[in-house]
Design brief:
Length: about 120
Amino acid sequence: QVQLVESGGGLVQAGGSLRLSCAASGRTFSSYAMGWFRQAPEKEREFVAAISGSGGTRAHADSVKGRFTISRDNSKNTVYLQMNSLKPEDTAVYYCNVPIFIKWYWGQGTQVTVST
């Protein structure tokens, strides 16, 4: 049973930083790309960042490029999202994701709120 558990969200002032973690369990994840998505109130879920199984390839949405960095530690089955220079428009629930074959697995999400 694949499980993803996000942590690290919270309330931060604009310009501040947070580091999100996603702990995965249920199988070995080093073979799979993993990603972060976010969903703001009354908006659709959107892509934030993704990383290959080895960690050698990364992609970030244009809206977070240069401010957010995705990374992973396969020895811990954990994916991270370092978020710097946070803006109020980054306020959302952040979800960890791993697509395995035809199924997409999601965590429960962690709330990030950026105040002005």
